[in-house]
Amino acid sequence: MFITFEGPEGGGKTTQINLLAVYLQECGYRVLATREPGGTRIGDQIRACLHDVNNKEMVPQTELLLYSASRAQLVHEVIRPALAAGILVLCDRFYDSTLAYQGYGRGLDLSQLRQITAFATAGLKPDLTLLFDIDVESGLTRRTVGGEEMNRLDLEALTFHQWVRHGFHALAAAEPTRWALIDAGRDPQLVQNDVRRLVMERLQL
Ligand code: TMP
Fold this sequence. Notes:
By secondary structure, the chain is α/β, with parallel strands linked by helices. It has helices spanning 13-26, 41-51, 60-84, 95-105, 110-121, 136-145, 158-174, 188-204, and strands at 2-6, 31-35, 88-92, 128-133, 179-183. The chain has one domain: 3-Layer(aba) Sandwich (Rossmann fold), CATH 3.40.50.300. It has a five-stranded parallel sheet, sandwiched between helices. Helix 4 packs antiparallel against helix 5 (110-121) and helix 4 crosses helix 7 (158-174). The longest helix has 25 residues, at 60-84. The model has no long low-confidence stretch (mean pLDDT 96). Thymidine-5'-phosphate (TMP) binds at residues 9, 36-37, 67, 93, 97-98, 101-102, 151, 153.
């Protein structure tokens, strides 16, 4: 089972994944939690380049290919072998972030993005994708106030992030059986209760 965590900035995905991983391990599942970009030695080097706030001249095409390169490495080196060994894989962002940020946000062609994504992942799709939905202003404020690592994309204008959020909603609406929407603006423990319920329902199917 492959579960991905998606959403705009500041939705608390990372905290939620960590809480869920501990819970699932207590329930007896073998779990691997990873993230994009990164999750491998090579991917972490790509992440540093992608998120460096000094790389202001990076064009959207380069950005797309670097996220995709990090994803290819993660899928082939980590995710596919783990799934083949029967391990439950949780991933903090996956290709839906490319569609939302580089597609809806940057305006790159969605059908081209899907082709590049299919190549990078060799066709791997999540079984379940949780959308941690939060309004853009609150999400960005949470990141700034929470003292989290600020990246090149955090510095984009508000309208960029509004397009990204709209993109996530459109992606979720197009594939309602894969996606579940979670109101991430609430108390983290309430959010975690929803996450556990949705994941356990899916595991019991
Ligand atoms: P995060 O680790 O805090 O979620 O940061 C990842 C950043 O990278 C976030 O701003 C979203 C962005 N991103 C893309 O633009 N495209 C992608 O394909 C991925 C995986 C992330």
